[in-house]
Amino acid sequence: GNSHLENIKVTYNKQSRYLNIRSTELKTNYDEDYGYIMLVDDITEKVLLEQENKQKENLSLIGKMTSSIIHDIKNPMSIIKTYLQIMQKRSKDDKFTHYFSIIDKEIDRLVTMTGDVLNFARGEYRVNLETCRVIDFIDDLTPLIKQLFQEKHIQLNIRIQYEDNVHIDKDKIR
Fold this sequence. Notes:
By secondary structure, the chain is an alpha+beta fold. Helix content is 56%, strand content 24%. The strands form 2 sheets. The chain has a 3-stranded antiparallel β-sheet with strand order 1-2-3, with helices on one face. Strands 4-5 form a two-stranded antiparallel ribbon. Strand 2 and strand 3 form a beta hairpin.
């Protein structure tokens, strides 16, 4: 009889190959068994190409979904930012003006992060390194951290011994 095996994965010495194997039984004129013919096709390149194409399709789909999700996140952020700006204009309290400023910066950070996620999904990734003093960077973070710690009744003490400059992406490290 005839037999046919497709996409058989064979591994030897840690290397895998994909094969199609076909065999046919040979008979004499008197219908006696004479032997077999076996045909082996190495289809490794074809299989790997199909796998690569499938992976590209999946990444493309993920990119499209990410783009849609990012768009859906940016719309509410724009609305929040607009109302925040209205509140900033109407507020006379310096304490709230300071909080509004922090919220505004954090909204901008979220919008930037959503853009970063979208760029990453597209296969792009950027790091915006800038030189800053460690103490200045910590000073920028302190009000945010301090507020969180105060809510938990935790005392925050900061001691900085390193006074030189560093090269960091401030938005990504926050």
